[in-house]
Amino acid sequence: MSSGFHPSVEQYLETLYDLSEDGETIIQARLAERLKHSAPTVSAVVKKLIGDGDVIKIGRNIQLTEKGLKRAQSVVRKHRLAERLLTDVLGIEWHLVHEEAGLLEHVISDRVEQKILEITGNPTTCPHGNPIPGSQSVNTTGEFRLLSCEARKTYKISRIGEVLESDTEILALLYSFGITPGKNILIKSINFEATHLQDSGLTIQTSKGINTIGVKIAEQLWVT
Ligand SMILES: [Zn+2]
After folding, report:
1. Ligand 1 geometric centre to CA of 96 (Å)
2. Domain 144-223, CATH
3. pLDDT digits (tens, 9 = 90+) for 50-75
4. Ligand 1 centroid to 49 CA: how many Å?
5. Where are any strands of DSSP class E within the chain?
6. Where are the domains of the chain?
7. Which member of 87, 112, 116, 162 has the lowest number of beta carbons within 10 Å of its beta carbon?
8. Distance from Cα 86 to the centre of ligand 1, integer Å
9. Ligand 1: distance of its center to the CA of 162 in Å?
């Protein structure tokens, strides 16, 4: 394997990529929260990434450099292709593949990656709708968070944010609600002001029925 085996560093690069994909400002505390690592651990890895020229810090903001972006894209590509292999070829359930792919992404060589691309028919997105870096024809312009939707309007789910992908329970729920990429949903009502958090959310009609999802979930669903 040409790139070597550095799961920890690769995990950081991947997380930085995911956060910037969702337009988030990246500070160390956010990395710590996403990776569930302690502040000193995050500081040490970020220091190493800066030393290697993969990231730069502007004030408190952490950004991938061109070199870091290339490395991150390679890991993310392998992750999303591995998910495709697991769902499309091996038949593993949609809500479980993210975790499995998190292990595989570090050991897939460029040769194996090429074979996965062929066997899965050159996919442009992962099974959760997130674009595979380097693939053609992915157009994410015009997509926005479901949180800013309007009642009584229909939207199409474009992708499930990576933050939700690591929560298998929520993914399983979304699947059972028929909230998956490419599906149309109708917003029946919006209630973000409810006094009890569990009453607060979006009531959505899909081909599988009418269900309510919370604010935290709506925030991580991207639609057009
Ligand atoms: Zn995915």
Report:
1. 10
2. 2.30.30.90
3. 999 999 999 999 999 999 999 999 99
4. 25
5. 55-58, 61-64, 144-145, 154-160, 184-191, 201-206, 209-213, 221-223
6. 7-68, 144-223
7. 112
8. 11
9. 7
